Amino acid sequence: MNNKAIYKLEFNKVREMIVPYAVTDEAKDIINRLQPTPIPSEVYRLQNETLDALNMSIKKGKPPINKVLEIQTATKRVQIGAILSAAEILNVGKVLKTSRLLKKYSKEEVQGLTFETLIPYFEVLALYPELEHEISRCILGPNEFSDEATPTLSSIRKQKARLHNQVRETIQNILHGQTYKDMLQEAVVTIREGRYCVPIKVEYKSAFKGIVHDQSQTGATVFMEPASVVEMNNKIRGLMSQEEEEIEVILSKFSDSIAEIIEELNITFEAICKLDVIFAKSEFAIKINARTPNLNERGYVNIKGGRHPLLSPSDVVPIDVYVGGDDFTTLLITGPNTGGKTVTLKTIGLFTIMAQCGLQIPAKEGSELAIFDDVFAGLGDEQSIEQSLSTFSAHMKNIVQILEKMTTNSLVLLDELGSGTDPIEGAALAMSILEHLRKQKICTIATTHYSELKLYALSTNGVENAACEFDIKSLRPTYKLLIGIPGKSNAFAISQKLGFPTHLIEDAKVFLEKENIKMEDILVELEYSKKTAQIEKENALKFRQETETLKEEIKQQRQKLEKSRQKILKRAEDKAQEILRNVEMETEQILKEVRQAARQAQVTIDENALQDVKKKTKDIISGQKELMHKQMGISPNKKKKALQDVKVGEQVLVLTYNQYGTVTTEPNNNGEVIVQMGILPLTVHVSDIERSKPPKEKVTKPIIGAKQSNRMSKAISIRPEVDLRGMMVDEAMTAVDKYLDDAYLSGLKQVTIIHGKGTGVLREAVTNMLRKHPHVVSYRLGKYGEGENGVTIVEIK
Q1: Which helix (H) or strand (E) holds 375?
Q2: Among positive and negative, which fits the CA dihedral 363, 369, 371, 377?
Q3: Distance from CA of residue 697 to its chain's centroid?
Q4: What angle do CA 444, 449, 452 make, to 5 degrees?
Q5: Most buried residue, 118, 439, 734, 785, by most Cβ within 10 Å?
Q6: Tens of pLDDT along 165-194?
Q7: CA distance 23 to 190
Q8: Is the dihedral of CA 653, 658, 659, 663 positive or negative?
Q9: What is the pLDDT of residues 603-650, one digit of tens each?
Q10: Residues 225-256 as b or e (16 or more Cβ within 10 Å = b)
């Protein structure tokens, strides 16, 4: 993209904000040269890399990137046979260490974390742990080598240390002895030209045996190497030469090892720098509270709550703006100076450049940006005395360059279009330019003060007005962008607030044409209507959300009730089936015994009578099931005919929900009515309702004539215990009450109620019921071997 737009939109300042988040100097240079790409696949890749890095930083912490220097110079030198310095080799060791740590960082597994886009960078990182270890072991600093680097170096340094000690001891004897006391200027040891010397008074220069290496500035002192240590110093100098030669050997060996992995090192260093850049982008995104924008290739921009990154977060007012797509491709922003028009232009352009560099944008989730071939920004005053360019000439020259270089997939930003010349001619030129851009469907955002352009936007398809809101009372802009209505410059109101004479303002109004005054009045009315409609819309949306929330809560409550109902029904059905199976088995057993007894007594049995007994047994069980269903309010599904002549105010039963309600409307053409069920109105078909009033509570009377059969069936199937564990209190009390009735009918004298120990709530509820139950004689907790506190033993009348 053109550098002019990058400068005008101040992307260079954004790059400067990102630089501190990078660690390596190479990564900082890359960030300073960061350029947006127009290739969609590259933009998607860059955005995904930043998002993956952000997720990794949040879940794993910052990556362990060390401050490594560039290695290209060193690798080029070693490639031609040069021996690297200790500092260069140390830097290679740092690169290898960083590579190893990053590799380990990528291997740490975190549940739910994926970073596919970063895997290629981590995979190419080279690992040479032995070379890394040897470098750190042998080289301690840029000019410092470990004594244990090699056995030879260790031996040389030990000899040096021994000789140094001998020299010091010899000189100490000279300094503290009586022989040379008068000759010494001071009792100190100095080093001159790498040799140990003592300060001797110049008059004793001939008397002291030794070699002169230096003289003081005054000439009163000479620094002499005692003859007794000359030979030892010579040996030390020889050992120093050997030490340098051994260090050269060490450096040479490391250089040879590095020469073998030059390609891998260069790839590794490049991957480290790229990861440094990517993670710097992610850290910057966290700093400015940015989000990943949705991207498209159809020229549609929709920024929600966008905040210009160069403005203070505490002062910036978020903007909502959209342009492009099928609705309109040109947005014309009007309003007073300092109202935020230029900031809106810069925000759109800067967000586009940031997104196409792989940077997240400081806006709300769901913001959408288009991928453009280029961004053109006609912003600011570019007048030049050197080039003899006026404000208007510079402005038009910039527009000419834009018209020559733009494509149908460009973003064009024009500030104060047509300004700097005669207003009528400037407005005509501006309309011509905008019309040219509109016909090519180029995404364009322009600002202006011209009323002619506002009318052009109102009357032209594909062009939309927008206004930067301004509060006349406080004389301050609100910085809110209102799309759909033109804005006012408010020159008269602002001037009056600033103390401009009222009579001059009134005179100025006289000079305005009537059409212009009428246009301004229309704009005021439009702005007022827009605000009113916006407030009403927000209130309606709020009420709708509350209604939807209430509706959802009722729906969930009904679903919960239906689930409980189905659960109870299923349990009852299973129990009934179990009773039926037990009765049939007992009946078969009794009939079998009857037949056997008849054969033994040689008596003929009427088989039809026996079959009749079996049938009656089944009928009794079936009758009990139907009674149970009726008590639970469960009715078999029968096909209902559509009601005729449904009247408003009738009470009906909605079959689908098994709920009662009141009809509030007449049937429509589709046979649907609205039934008010509590606070919820529901639209249902007339075939789904039946005339019915809510039932009153009735006392179920026992079935006459079935007492003995019922007693027989209970006696056959009743168990001596009932298990309440896992039930709620209400559910358990119903089960206990029914069980005690069955036990009483079957003639059981003692039963066991299993309620478990738990918190004791269920046991207490059972005790309270037994205390008042008419069938209970006495009760007690279980003893050892019976279940202790987890059961209650009940004596039945």
Answers
A1: strand 374-378
A2: negative
A3: 55
A4: 80
A5: 118
A6: 888 888 888 888 777 888 888 888 888 877
A7: 45
A8: negative
A9: 555 556 556 666 666 665 565 555 555 555 555 444 445 666 788 888
A10: bbeebbebbebbeebeebbeebbeebbeebbe
